[in-house]
Design brief:
This protein is 32% helix and 27% strand. By secondary structure, it is α+β, with helices and mostly antiparallel strands. Strands 8, 9, 12, 15, 16 and 17 form a 6-stranded antiparallel sheet that branches. A hairpin with a 2-residue loop joins β10 and β11. The radius of gyration is 19 Å and the shape is globular. The structure holds adenosine-5'-triphosphate and magnesium ion. The site of adenosine-5'-triphosphate has 18 residues, from β2, β7 and β15.
Length: 304
């Protein structure tokens, strides 16, 4: 089976997000599984994009290896380390699971923006600011910012994120934790943006999540890292300030959805096979363009 809508395993499920299913291994570790679910406008589609969860997991692995000086939650991706209770599911888990450190997640999303788009552009148009910080006048949509900006957000209960100021993030988390995670976020963004640029790809913005270890002190990078679901990647040759460039992967689905008379509330429309296939192809292209590695090679490694 290469796709899964919900995933049940003979382990206690401790979380289920829009894309991931999280199971308990023991007090200190979790089985973190990326399904092939896809969401757009915060609505999860009924159909799956085969291998999408593997693409996201493989990209995260790629970036964690490049940022090995930042503490992260990855313990193992090898089949041999799966708990014996789930060894029968090794084939479908291969490439889409990580055994991770169980963390207390910080309730703030660490967003870094290098370009003016999305909710950042919306705020700038309204107030001339981003996350409350004033910006030069006359910037256009998708313009490159003078320098990358940290624009934290909280997960609002409505499902849509709410932008907050750095000062508010410091009040929520404590100044020291906030500053550590913010500095890691800048470091990751700058590293990844430079790396992507050499491959003809712009990293417009991205979101990180951090947790703290059982000691309550160590700030640890968690969740997915620099994937098409947590980031905007643009082909550099299609970037033109003044309009929102097509992003690599989900844009194809969003474009198709925006041509429909759909109010962006559940239930979602039924995705035709060519939209599923086209979306899958773009996720795999994004993996290969960014990592410089064939997706098949990734899967051979993960199955061995
Ligand atoms: N090491 C970790 N320990 C505990 N929780 C983690 C860890 N890494 C990530 N998480 C959490 O696991 C979940 C990942 O699931 P997923 O990406 O599907 O969620 P989401 O749709 O983005 O958000 P939500 O959880 O609000 O539905 C997130 O809630 C994330 O905060
Ligand atoms: Mg998530």
């Amino acid at each position: 089976m290469t796709s899964m809508q919900t995933m049940d395993l003979p382990l206690r499920k401790v979380g289920s997000g829009k894309v991931r299913e999280i199971f308990e291994i023991d007090d200190s570790s979790l089985l973190f599984v990326a399904t092939d679910r896809i969401s757009a406008y915060d609505v999860v589609m009924d159909e799956l994009i085969p291998d999408k969860g593997r693409v996201l997991t493989g990209m995260t692995e790629h970036w964690l290896a490049l940022a090995s000086d930042i503490p992260n939650h990855l313990i193992s991706m090898s089949l041999a380390d799966l708990p014996s209770a789930v060894q029968d599911y090794a084939e479908e888990l291969a490439g889409r699971f990580m055994i991770v450190k169980r963390l207390n997640m910080l309730p703030v999303e660490f967003v870094v923006r290098g370009y003016l788009v999305g909710s950042g552009w919306a705020e700038y148009k309204r107030n001339g600011t981003i996350a409350g910080m004033p910006l030069p006048e006359g910037l256009r949509e998708a313009d490159k910012l003078p320098e990358p900006l940290f624009t934290p957000a909280t997960k609002a209960t409505t499902g849509h994120d709410e932008n907050i100021s750095e000062a508010t993030a410091g009040e929520i988390l404590g100044e020291k934790r906030m500053a550590t995670a913010r500095d890691y976020s800048f470091q990751l963004y700058k590293m990844a943006a430079e790396y992507a640029e050499q491959r003809g790809i712009i990293l417009a913005d991205t979101k990180f999540e951090f947790g703290v270890d059982a000691d309550g002190e160590t700030v640890v990078l968690a969740d997915e890292v620099l994937t098409p679901d947590s980031s905007r990647f643009w082909p550099a040759d299609e970037w033109k300030p003044g309009s929102n460039p097509p992003s690599f992967d989900k844009q194809f689905l969003r474009d198709w959805l925006s041509g429909l008379d759909w109010n962006k509330e559940p239930p979602p429309p039924t995705l035709p096979q060519d939209v599923i296939d086209g979306t899958r192809r773009r996720y795999i292209e994004a993996y290969e363009a960014i990592t410089g590695k064939f997706f098949d090679t990734y899967m051979q490694e993960r199955r061995s």
